[in-house]
Amino acid sequence: xxxxxxxDVQKLGLFIRILASIIFTCxxxxxxxxxxxxxxxxxxxxxxxxxxxxxxxxxxxxxVTFKGYAxxxxxxxxxxx
Length: 81
Known about the structure:
Layout: H1 14-40, H2 45-67
Helix pairs in contact: 1-2
């Protein structure tokens, strides 16, 4: 199975990038809130799960927002050129 590369797929449009930037901004606020809760509350296992989920969301939405492409492992979601 051949995985697509950036030369095989088209760059995402402006509307999708704007939506990804909204998700990126919300994820940043979530990370700030979770960091504040980490210092003010006693430690719980849910903090690790929260940081993992927020980290993945920041990685994917940041890549779409700033580069115009999904991460390499999600390039199959793009349309062909």
